Amino acid sequence: MTQELNDFINSIGELEESLIPRRVEQITDDFANSELSEAFGTDAFADVIDRWYGNQPGLLWEIIEKLRDRSPALASWANSSLRKLLKAPAEVIFDRSVLERNIKEKNGWNAPDEDVKRWFSALRIYLHTIVENADTQAKLDIVKQLWTNREGIRPAISKEWPVDARKLVGLEIKRFEEELNQVLTNQTVVVANTKAARARAREDLSLPGVVRPFGSRHPLRQTFEEIERIFLSLGYSVVAGPEMETPYYNFEALNIPEHHPARDNMDTFYMAAPAGASPLLLRTHTSPMQVRTMEKQQPPVRIIVPGKVYRRDNPDATHGFMFHQIEGLAVDTGITFCDFKGTVEYFVREFLGPKVKTRLRPSYFPFTEPSVEVDATCVFCGGKGCNVCKQSGWIELFGAGMVDPAVYGFVNYDAKKFSGFAFGLGVERLTQLKYNINDLQLYFQNDVRFLRQFV
Fold first, then answer.
1. First-to-last CA distance in the chain?
2. What is the C-alpha separation between 103 and 97, in angstroms, rounded?
3. Which has the closest alpha carbon to 146: 89, 69, 219?
4. Are 34 and 99 found together in one domain?
5. DSSP conformation class of 335
6. What's the pTM value of the predicted model, to 2 decimals?
């Protein structure tokens, strides 16, 4: 390093901040560009690149550190004078005079392919040197801007090339970009590993470690996700809706008339509403979204609706005023009770295990006809009979059935053309069966002793 260049670099720490960008431009014009232009095309070019952009001695990095000491903004890509120094090799390699000498001579392109390859070979030397010596994340971020930023080197190497040169240049640019991405990826890993190694070196390993317990998803969330996975594999979609509903969607559109006991305010949470306003309630099931979905689209419909529901029950081991459901609906042409039975059996086997058997018992629900209760062989005794299943060998799982044609009238479906089935799964109950939990209140008490069993 000449004394004059050394003085210029050292002056960065002494000049007024407003004069620093001009000083960096002087260093670029008077020293970097001069040395690069003189060495380009000779064996000395790699040495000059290493002198400025490598670590022998790495004048660029020394300048960046001095700029950072004065102001972080000066050491960033936003500093146009620093950008000029960073881009200097590319500007020299693809300088207009070099191109004009080869393009315009004899009024045509006469540069041999070897010249083009030589230019990109020089560019690769610059690329490898500057990237591999960006040893911190801050330096690497600046270097990445060389290619990704519109003020980077891309314009310098993407000039308007003559037609005869475009094929070769295009291939070289593509190769260069692939190589650049790979080198940047490798250096990102190196920088991250170096940072981690430095952090480990600063750690006092004689200190006792801090034991941090592992967390896990709540057992109800695990059940939700498993049920969703099963039905997604069957082609169902997951939809969600409001927890505050109107009586129409919660009851009437599901064929639950006004006189039905479920509409009694002893069973449902009704919300106080201003005079003249439409009444609102907390949904007692997630079935309203089945109606809302059918209103929006014609069959085929295959959905499940997970969510919270609310009923006026006193909390105990098997009841709560809030619990979770997953309602399901499938409507299409030609859906039969056999399709329904096959879907139910597939779900139960996937959820409770391949050895579990199912049975259907006649039941009644206003929105399905025929309606059934789905039972499964007791998962605790294998169907032999125990206290849990009351010696019957069977455990009730959920209610289901074929959609009542009256429901189709509320959504303008042709009941003669379409058919389907619906079901409602109690998530707490299925979780109790799967994990042998005997008290529903355990789900909501935030007892770590209980929850850590599901890690």
1. 62
2. 10
3. 89
4. yes
5. -
6. 0.53
